[in-house]
Amino acid sequence: MRETRAGRPRKAPGRRGHRPARFTRRDTVVLGLLLGLPILIEAVVIWGPTLASVGLSFTSWDGIGDITWVGGKNYESLVDTYPAFWPAVRHNLLWIGFLGLVATPFGLLLAVLIDRGVRFSRFYQSVLYMPVVLSLAVVGFMAQLLLGTDQGVINTVLGNEQNPIDWLGDSDLNIWMMMIAASWRHTGYVMILYLAGLKSVDPALKEAAAIDGANTRQTFFRVVFPTLRPVNVIVGVITVIEALRAFDIVYAVNKGRNGLELLSVLITDNIIGEASRIGFGSAIAVVLLTVSLGFIVTFLVQELRGARDR
């Protein structure tokens, strides 16, 4: 600051007061497009059909005639008189349990082994991730080639050509075979997610645990795994979504019948099948939405509470 002749301070030359930046009209248009278009697309493609399904679930409509309001009769019929509903619910819950308790921990194990720097880790990583690029429909067709009774690879290897095991036709076996096939794809996805999380763990934490006398197992479960909490949230949500939207693989095998009933298959059969009961199928879709949101919201709330308490 300099003194003027009157004794008043004067600002140094070349400096001006800071003014908040203002968006130009062009900036506003670009920002509106970048934010508005994704929001509009999500509203039209996702939330629009979702809200429409909720509304249609209280109606009776065949897609052509008039829409008739029936209240909660669709849900009553679904629970009381629709024989395929409860088996489909059990199969979906079984699918969630299998992916969450078998496939996901196995993917974590593979990630830990590869992160330790085993030989040919790049090769293993590529091979294990390769099934992720396949759709579940393709995995279902591959399962037919492997498990089919007519020259199936598994029966041929086991020497059961004369009396083959009906892996896909037996209702006591096919659901387990399909979950194993889906887990083959899911494991690679989980492995990549956890491998990325393990690469971001600070090595100083492991060194500090080793200095304190912790062994490898204690270091992982007490130091490394708690730092993977954000990855756990992502993996948990993906596991639930993958389990509840399983449709392609069972529909490719036997159109989701004879032991492979799932809620997603029932939705398709009722909405676009010969019956064309759009209101009834929408009620099943709302049940599936409620189940998925229940799992996901509960999981996220627990994780966020844990992160806040730390």
Question: Would you kindly provide a written description of the structure presented here, covering whatever features stand out?
Answer:
The protein is 67% helix and 3% strand. With 310 residues, it is mainly α. The protein has a two-stranded antiparallel sheet. A two-stranded antiparallel ribbon has the order 3-4. Strand 1 and strand 2 (9-10) form a beta hairpin. The model has no long low-confidence stretch (mean pLDDT 84).
SSE inventory with pairings:
Blueprint: E1 2-3, E2 9-10, H1 25-56, E3 59-60, E4 68-69, H2 73-80, H3 85-115, H4 121-129, H5 136-147, H6 153-158, H7 174-199, H8 203-211, H9 216-227, H10 229-244, H11 248-254, H12 263-271, H13 278-309
Antiparallel strand pairs: 1-2, 3-4
What characteristics describe this protein?
310 residues, mainly alpha, two-stranded antiparallel ribbon, 4 strands, 3% strand
What is shown here, in short?
The protein is mostly helical. The protein contains 13 helices and four strands.
Within the largest sheet, what's the order of strands?
A: 1-2
Number of helices: 13
Q: Which series of helices and strands comes N to C?
A: EEHEEHHHHHHHHHHHH
Q: Rg from C-alpha positions?
A: 28 Å
Largest sheet: 2 strands, antiparallel
Beta-strand percentage? under 5%
Structural class: mainly alpha
Total beta strand runs: 4
User: Uncertain regions: pLDDT < 50 for 5+ in a row?
Assistant: none
Helix content: 55-70%
**pLDDT averaged over residues:** 84
Global morphology: globular
Measured distance between first and last alpha carbons? 49 Å
